[in-house]
Write a structure and sequence with these properties.
The complex is a heterodimer. Chain A has helices at about 15-25, 40-50, 65-75, 90-100, 110-120, 130-140, 155-165, 170-175, 180-210; strands spanning about 5-10, 30-35, 55, 80-85, 105. Chain A is of the alpha/beta class. Chain A has a five-stranded parallel beta sheet, sandwiched between helices. In chain A, helix 2 packs parallel to helix 3 (about 65-75), helix 6 packs across helix 7 and helix 7 crosses helix 9 (about 180-210). Chain B has 13 helices and seven strands. Chain B has a five-stranded mixed beta sheet. A two-stranded antiparallel sheet of chain B has the order 1-3. In chain B, a hairpin with a 3-residue loop joins strand 6 and strand 7. The chains are: A alpha/beta, B alpha+beta. The interface of A and B includes residues 14, 130, 165 and 166 of A.
């Protein structure tokens, strides 16, 4: 993929970090179309500049990253959100992914790792660190007994567990005798089911509260 | 306790005193009017009632308490109250008939008089209560001069003075302690809020140092690596914290395992707490620690390792994986036979004692993976 064709917005309340990351990405050929310091500005500026990828810190000064994710995806459902957080807050990260973020990196990730993650995100692939896989796996296990909760197939669970144990897609493919693509699609499905669960909850909540337009 | 209660803990008792004052005044008036023809001086008795009513009005105003923070002038009212009450009692020989005194009729003021003792006890604490009770009791003795018949009343008055005085002292002290505790808690919360902001900033700068350093290489790279280690340590400290033991003696295994994370060890857990008996958590953390130490020893100091905690309805499963050369067949059992506190003995023994199982999957192409399973 042509790096320059990838448009990115960086959302972070720390100016030094925000500008540093933006410069890193543009030095490597990506087009940073905007930066924003808080949730409100992020939603407003994203709507105006329509970036492909939003690189988002969850710990914003005013408003939460979660609000920003919901706001941006509400206006621009095609935008990909990559969470880049210093907090490592497990529950927050899980909520962000349920709200529609497709990847998560800690801020200690190196510049090359970050670039690779942004490019993967732009291509539509989830960025699954072992930590995120563990959180998603835990969430499916937690909701396992609940009625109407989506369940993973055995194969999807197997793939997700190997991701959580730190294996790369290539290693997983070798171990399970699957193609690299198939492994990717299993990972993508787990994420889609998790987000579906969240949307289903929203719809159920809306119906219970009588917000379904009747 | 609400905030006003904490600032002025005795307020409800003062209100109670006012009610007591008014009710006992009404009762005294009723008794005197009912027996008015027995008095030597009916007009005098009514005059005393008027004084009592007037003084009750004055003390109602005086004991009501000013605005919070205003100087509390109730001490002087309490002393004046004691004097006026003693004065009311002193009128007894002037207005009552000999027949009344001989028949042990109540002194003037009767049950209205302990109000002054209550006021002294509330304001001055146990010493005030005791002093007030002694004054009123002395008046009783002087007026009736029949020690035996008044003994019960004196005991009651002393009791009231001491108990209410003691309650007042204790309430004041505990309210002061509570006020200090609340202030300390508020200060701690504010400090924590500030610390979060500072820590977040420090994390950002350390992270940036690490990235810039690794790009520049050389000495800067070394500095960057050091910054990275500190960043990791601080983040672990901030996001894990000690996992507390709850009332049922259970701890969160997920939080306890996350402490093991480092720049070379990735720990993946569910987002929700995985609660197990505290002893089991300690043992499992020790087993994981032993497995990680083993990776460091046999694969390399910088060798990466992955820990995964899964929790299902049936139990928990922990995996500790590395990408080292694997363990040659027979070596684990050898370590056991030699009696060294090696991998096998320490880890297998601990897991077996918990009633769980531990298996090792190893091979030259796939490193080593320890899998620990424990049923609930």
């Amino acid at each position: 993929m042509d790096h320059q064709a990838v448009t990115v917005m960086v959302v972070d309340d720390h100016p030094i970090w925000r500008e540093g990351v933006a410069r890193d990405l543009s030095d490597r050929g990506l087009t940073v179309v905007a930066t924003a310091p808080d949730a409100d500005a992020a939603v407003r500026i994203a709507t105006a500049t329509r970036p492909q990828v939003v690189l988002m810190d969850l710990n914003l000064g005013t408003g939460t990253g979660l609000e920003a994710i919901e706001g941006i995806l509400g206006a621009l459902p095609e935008t990909r959100i990559l969470v880049l957080s210093a907090s490592g807050e497990h529950a927050d990260v899980l909520e962000a992914v349920k709200a529609g973020a497709t990847g998560y990196l800690v801020k200690s990730a190196g510049a090359e790792e970050l670039l690779a993650a942004v490019l993967r995100t732009a291509e539509g692939y989830p960025v699954f660190t072992p930590g995120l896989a563990g959180l998603v796996l835990g969430e499916f296990r937690r909701t396992a007994g609940e009625p109407a909760a989506p369940v993973l197939t055995d194969r999807e669970t197997e793939v997700l567990r190997l991701v959580a144990k730190g294996l790369t897609a290539k290693q997983i493919g070798e171990r399970l005798v699957l193609s690299h693509r198939t492994v990717e699609s299993h990972v993508q499905n787990t994420l889609r089911k998790l987000q579906l669960n969240n949307r289903a909850q929203l719809v159920r909540y809306a119906i219970e509260k009588g917000l379904d337009g009747e | 306790m609400t905030l006003p209660d904490m600032e002025r803990p005795l307020e409800p008792l003062w209100r109670g005193l006012l009610v007591y004052r008014v009710l006992t005044l009404l009762s005294s008036i009723a008794v005197v009017l009912y027996t008015l023809d027995e008095f030597d001086s009916g007009a005098g008795a009514i005059g005393v009632l008027v004084v009592m009513a007037g003084w009750t009005a004055v003390t109602t105003y005086g004991y009501f308490g000013g605005l919070p923070g205003a100087r509390d002038g109730r001490g002087r009212f309490a002393i004046a109250d004691l004097a006026v009450t003693a004065g009311v009692m002193a009128t007894t020989p002037l207005v009552q008939s000999h027949a009344q005194i001989a028949a042990n009729a109540p002194v003037m003021g009767s049950i209205w008089t302990p109000g002054a003792v209550l006021a002294c006890a509330l304001f001055f604490g146990i010493r005030g209560g005791l002093a007030g009770a002694v004054v009123i009791s002395t008046m009783l003795l002087l007026i009736s001069a029949t020690f035996r018949t008044e003994l019960g009343d004196i005991e009651l008055i002393l009791l009231v003075g001491i108990v209410i005085g003691f309650a007042s002292t204790v309430l004041r002290r505990s309210a002061e302690r509570l006020r200090r505790a609340v202030a300390a808690e508020a200060a701690a919360q504010e400090r924590e809020r500030l610390a979060r902001a500072v820590h977040d900033g420090v994390l950002q700068v350390l992270g940036l140092l690490r990235r810039r350093g690794s790009e520049l290489g050389g000495d800067a790279g070394e500095l960057g690596a050091l910054a990275g280690e500190q960043e990791f340590a601080l983040r672990t400290l901030l996001t894990t914290g000690p996992a507390p033991v709850d009332g049922a003696g259970r701890r969160d295994l997920a939080a306890a395992l996350r402490v093991a994370a480092s720049s070379r060890v990735v720990v993946s857990t569910p987002a929700h707490p995985v609660e197990l008996p505290a002893h089991a958590v300690d043992e499992l953390v020790a087993v994981v620690g032993a497995a990680l130490a083993n990776v460091e020893q046999h694969v390399g100091r910088d060798a990466p390792a992955w820990v995964l905690l899964e929790s299902t309805g049936e139990g928990v499963e922990i995996s500790v994986r590395d990408e080292g050369p694997g363990i040659p067949a027979g070596r684990l059992d050898g370590a056991d036979d030699e009696g060294r506190l090696g991998v096998a003995r320490s880890m297998r023994g601990r897991v077996r004692d918990l009633g769980g199982e531990i298996v090792c999957e190893t091979g030259p192409e796939r490193g080593t993976e320890w899998i620990i399973r424990l049923s609930r």
